[in-house]
Description:
Keywords: Membrane, Transmembrane, Transmembrane helix
Distance between the termini: 61 Å
Transmembrane segments: 36-60, 72-94, 114-136, 143-162, 168-190
Number of strands: 0
Amino acid sequence: VSLILLVVLIVVVVLYRRRGVGRVDVGTVVRRFLEYGFLYGLVMASAIGATGVLSRLLDLTSEDNVAEPEELALWLSLLIVAGGALIGLGLWLRRRFRSDPTEADTTGWSLYRSAVDLTAVGFVVAGSTQAIGWLLDGWNVDTWMLAAVVVWAAIGVIHRGLPGGLPAVTHLVGATVALLGVSISGAVILEHLVSWAYDGATPDP
Length: 205
């Protein structure tokens, strides 16, 4: 993981040098990379904690699954710690965006927005496909994925209101993932409809 982060950091610095008209402050590039990387990590940790809490609450409504208090406390602790750090970092970054509006146009912020957007799309598509399969085709109930749909949909909506835009490649990858999810969901729905029509047209022996 450290090697991957180092490679990404080098690529970002090279891109900054190629795109920059004059001198590029490498220290600023590294600082932004670390800050927004840490911000993404806090978003992920908070999302995992919120998903764990919500999934355990959903388990309380199921007769087959029993939510253990220790596990619920673990996810709640993660949500409180990571969520508190996320709020603090978010407030600090908001002051920077207010003092320097050009921060929204930086590559580091664009990469962060892209990473969160694609992560949200992936979880929402996977969870929605799981829910459709459960409703129509008798798939096993995965409360974790159902909770992830709610959590990441909320994260995606919140980030849509943040300043700055997304690069075209992010929209392309997101559309591809969404198309894949729609295809799988459509196949499940079509299979269910064909089975329903066949059972209705075939007389009982």
